[in-house]
Amino acid sequence: MTKLSWSRITFFMMLVFVLALAACGGGNDDSSGDEGTDDTEESEGGDSGEASGDVYNYEDFPQTVSNDAEPTGEGVLKVGYSSDTPFEGTLNWAFYNGNPDSIMLSYFDESVFTVDEDLQYTNDGAMTFEVDEENKQVTFTLNENVTWHDGEPATINDYVASHEIIGHPDYDGVRAADEGFTLIEGYNEYQAGEADEISGIEVIDDQTAVFTYTALSPSLTAGGFWAYLFPEHYYEGVEVADMSAAPQTRENPIGIGPYMVDSITPGEAIVYTKNEDYWRGEPQLDGVEVSVISPSSIVNAVESGDIHYVEGFPTDQFPDVADMEGVEWLAQLEGSYTYIGFKLGSWDAENSQVNYTPDEMKMGDKELRRAMWHAMDNDAIGERFYNGLRWKATSLITPYHASWHNDEVEVPDYNPEEANRILDEAGYEDVDGDGLREDPDGEPLEIQFASMSGGDIAEPLANYYIQSWREIGLNVVLTNGRLIEFNTFYDMVENDDPSIDIYQGAWSVGTDVDPGGLYGPNASFNYPRYATEESNELIAQGVSEEAFDIDYRMDVYNQWQELMVEEMPVIPTLYRAYVNPVSEQVVNYSEEVAFSDEHALYNVGLSE
Region (Disordered): which ranges (predicted)? Predict the structure, then answer.
């Protein structure tokens, strides 16, 4: 189902990156976030921490099902979302935060844009766009056949409304600072409450609008344009500040996709029925059911035939069930990475900016951070916990963006002796002889480490890192003495909880290579709270008009990748691929990134 690959892309498309937060959570992955986000990605964990011994390469797996039968046009596709955390239930793209909700959203409300193999927007979706570089304008045209699930025709005003909602001073979501919004002429004045409308948006007719920008950025056509409509008519009478918690968002959401929400079991499951008026054509299924299933139970659900497909199959479990009958295993590179983040400041909510104060933070000494990097054997972790389906990360621009990933950047290797030398020279010594180092002032040094629960690997992996750091004399302990549930984890990280010095997270990176949504000075997702003049300048250069020159932009991002290794506000730990089982009954399903009408969600079906 290309749709599923697309949902992973859009998940943190606006950074989306939801939270994409790719949080780490166990064997299950999903990432995000917007601005995130994986969805959020999850925390990691594994069985006893021992792999089966087999090492796999995701490139050896197919991306599309081999069943080429005609779909029957009937039946219900049953999907299992592997997670030990309920989905939050904020079911509108403007307001959702994590990957679990993005998964649920993707079945009933779709992006108006599609992408090609290079993750660039194409004009094969519900909306087309035409760029006028000379006048810094973009003309958006919505297909006149698109309708909302309540039967109301969608118009270009629904696209304008999404910008007006997200840019509104009372908006309580996380996407208002994305440059797809901030570059629109008059947007910042509107957001500040100084104007009643966004002056750079002109509605021409029911299907067409012209957006004027203060500058055109290469990021706009690679995930920068906001990709969703907002059903303004459906929220009539609801104040913007109340929309994220309104019944229209939580209980009875609507969209424009091939399936529509029939019923919701909060946090547990959503039943969708066919949208016979879907603009591309009638879907090939009567409906879809998506259920949250514990990672410990997901294999049984597949083997028993209770589900046809898994979202976020626990990677660590694959070697034990690789020969399962009745399914076909598909794999794909994830636009995600896991990382160790260091708290280096705080978030200034009043001014919507990072307050970078390393001198006041426990982890502000980059030599301490460098030593911790040298203590981690991420090559071994990839093989031991994930059988090669995750592997050592180097740069914060991942191989998912193949043309931009700098695979020559030099990073600290696994070298405990070098880690000890660095700490000795930096003044972190064992003063009292207990085997643990004090800080340079001779005071006890306890580093509180937040890591997420989820899946069999979560606890062994967290313990593996803790033990690795203890072996170089660092006293690292779990925040609150335990692993933390997904939603609580991100609440604590977002709010700069003082009980967190370092944390293990993950990010879904979205379609655009621009790292500004995660590490920019005004990015709320900049959880390390890192913002230096050099980094800020490089991030700005990467989305400038000069960056339309590919060589220029590539040089900028090479410099930024090298700076992040030098400064290490976060340590990238693992890149990832996912493998998912698909029932042999399923047809027209694919994990390919580029949009294909043949494999779009509405064409996915079941065979006899």
Answer: 28-73
The CA–CA distances, whole Å, from 403 to 119, 179, 199, 281, 554 equal 11, 22, 36, 36, 8
- How many CB atoms are closer than 10 A to CB 53? 9
> What are the C-alpha distances in Å from 215 to residues 97, 122, 181?
28, 21, 11
What CA–CA distance (Å, rounded) separates 253 from 271? 12
Place of tokens 């069930």: 321
Q: Which structure tokens are listed for 40?
A: 């959020």
C-alpha 538/C-alpha 294 separation (Å) is: 42
Element (H, E) at 572: strand 570-583
Tokens of 569: 């506000």
Rounded to whole angstroms, the Cα distance separating 2 from 286 reads: 19
Q: Distances in Å between the alpha carbon of 600 and those of 39, 106, 157, 596? A: 21, 12, 26, 6
> Cα 567 to the chain's mean position, in Å?
23
Mean pLDDT per 10-residue run, the chain (608 residues)?
Answer: 40 34 36 34 35 81 96 98 93 92 96 90 97 96 98 98 98 88 96 97 98 93 93 98 98 98 98 98 98 95 95 89 96 93 97 96 98 97 91 95 91 98 98 96 97 88 97 98 94 97 91 90 95 97 89 95 98 95 97 94 97
pLDDT for the residue 52: 53
Closest CA to 453 of 465, 441, 462: 462
* pLDDT one-digit tens code per residue, 301-332: 999 999 999 999 988 899 999 999 999 999 99
CA torsion 585-590-596-598 (nearest 10°) is -10
User: CA–CA separation, 56 vs 386, rounded Å?
Assistant: 9
pTM score of the predicted model: 0.75
Residue-by-residue DSSP string for 279-318: TT---SSSEEEEEEE-TTTHHHHHHTTS-SEEES--GGGH
Instruction: Give 602's DSSP letter.
Output: G
Output the pLDDT for position 223. 86
Backbone angles phi, psi at 335, to 5 degrees: -85, 60
Are the CB atoms for 278 and 91 separated by under 8 Å?
Answer: no
**514 φ/ψ angles, rounded to the nearest 5 degrees:** -55, 120
Closest CA to 118 of 505, 404, 437: 404
Question: Please, what sign has the CA dihedral across residues 86, 90, 95, 100?
Answer: positive
- Cα distances (angstroms) measured from residue 495 to each of 38, 343, 346: 19, 11, 8
For the stretch 120-144, pLDDT in tens is 899 999 999 999 999 999 999 999 9
